[in-house]
Design brief:
The protein is built from 11 helices and 7 strands. The chain is of the alpha+beta class. α1 packs antiparallel against α4, α2 packs antiparallel against α3 and α5 runs antiparallel to α6.
Length: 416
């Protein structure tokens, strides 16, 4: 609902109540009018007009400029008719009384403070003509209506501007989230495939070396696009896995470990993409992470199932996979890694630790500037979308530790 909609509803109620007030004033003082029939006729028209146009002041779309002019005409006509039907010399309210302010407020809500200033000026001139002389109370009332209507019109303009700004901010936030998700997909698939082609091409030599060089150029260009926010609007195919086109992580027997749909490792003994979810849409995180264990990766888990909503479980497993990929690439072929899964009452914690050389101070910031966004997107980005956090602790010469935390109420139910 628009922020100004309550103001239109308030104006609708104001017009009805002030119409009843004007009629009540006439009923109380009708004996003092010189031409009470004429006053009663105008008030009858005012009542019919107010009730017939209730729907016209219910929203900005229905309240057109033509209607506002007609509404102001009814108010000004009542003001100018007051000295004709009233007793000469009697100082009293005009026939429409404070109903007139409703006509001015309609201009304020519809067009802002400029429209309000013009409408209130017209009403002010009509009041001065009705009185004949600029009496103190008349000038006071005219200025009061003018200032109040201009102030309300200005508030309405500010509210509209704030609403537009909020709408734009929400659009930018949604676009940013989608861009980051697509960037993670690209990092976890295309970029790693290009890096593997470049590395293997250089090792093989010959025509493969030229192919590897071209793949390297494309990798740099794509990383630049990802870092700059220009991510192609494409989704991964089901065949692409969360840790990309790099070499599959070897299983305990040296064979490639199977991987499940959406990039999450498939449990041992199941076919790739087989569903391990419970009937209620949850998955046991232990099963997903167990597929990451091999001769160089140890996995410690609780004795009871660690159930998370499917989306959250798969994203968390993909973040663990990205952390293990970093161990492969940066810690060396002989490095060992340990995965610790902890099931706390309010959150799930997964710690990935290795015994590699560690990360030099400032290297992560340099990597992000260079467009290498593995930690920023594949790990921290995933956890941020789940409402969790990812902390990285590394001491040169003492290995690296990544701690992933997500709350039990992780935002994992959003469709991709």
């Amino acid at each position: 609902m628009s922020v100004e909609q309550p103001l239109w509803r308030a104006l609708t109620g104001y017009r009805v109540l002030t119409m009843a007030y004007a009629i009540a004033l006439f009923g109380y003082d009708h004996d003092e009018y010189a031409r009470p029939i004429g006053a009663a006729a105008y008030l009858a028209v005012l009542a019919v007009w107010t009730l017939a146009t209730v729907g016209r002041v219910s929203s900005a779309e229905r309240c057109t400029l033509r209607f506002l002019v007609a509404d102001l005409t009814v108010a000004v006509a009542g003001i100018l008719l007051s000295p004709v039907v009233d007793t000469a010399g009697r100082v009293g309210p005009t026939l429409p009384s404070i109903w007139t302010a409703g006509a001015v407020l309609g201009f304020a809500l519809k067009g802002g403070w400029r429209w309000a200033a013009v409408a209130s000026a017209v009403v002010g001139v009509a009041n001065l003509i009705e009185r004949g002389t600029p009496a103190q109370d008349t000038v006071h009332n005219v200025l009061l209506v003018w200032i109040a209507s201009v102030a309300i019109g200005y508030v309405v303009e500010v509210a509209r501007a704030s609403e537009r700004t909020l709408a734009r901010a929400l659009e930018v936030d949604a676009a940013t989230r989608e861009r980051e998700r697509l960037a993670r997909d690209i990092h976890d698939s295309v970029l790693q495939v290009l890096a593997m082609v470049q590395r293997r091409g250089a090792e093989i030599g010959g025509e493969a070396a030229e192919l590897g060089r071209m793949a390297g150029e494309q990798e740099v260009a794509l990383r630049t696009l990802v870092a700059g926010g220009l991510v192609p609007a494409a989704r991964r195919s089901p065949e692409q896995v969360s840790r990309g086109g790099g070499e599959p992580r070897p299983g305990p027997d040296g064979s490639p470990a199977a991987e499940g749909g959406d990039g999450a490792p498939a449990p041992a003994g199941s076919s790739a993409g087989a569903s391990t979810g419970a009937a209620d849409g949850s998955r046991d995180l232990r099963t997903l992470l167990a597929a990451c264990a091999n001769s160089r990766v140890s996995f410690a888990e609780p004795g009871a199932p660690v159930l998370l909503e499917t989306r959250a479980a798969e994203e968390l497993a993909a973040a663990v996979g990205a952390a293990l990929d970093n161990v492969d690439r940066h810690a060396g072929a002989d490095a060992r890694a340990w995965i610790l899964l902890e099931d706390e009452p309010g959150e799930v914690i997964v710690t990935v630790r290795d015994d590699g050389p560690g990360i030099p101070e400032g290297r992560l910031a340099d990597a992000e500037r260079e467009g290498r966004l593995g930690v920023a997107l594949s790990i921290r980005g995933r956890l941020r979308e789940l409402g969790g956090s990812a902390e990285l602790l590394s001491v040169p010469g003492q290995g690296t530790e990544v701690e992933l935390r997500i709350p039990r109420t992780a935002r994992g139910s959003e469709s991709r």
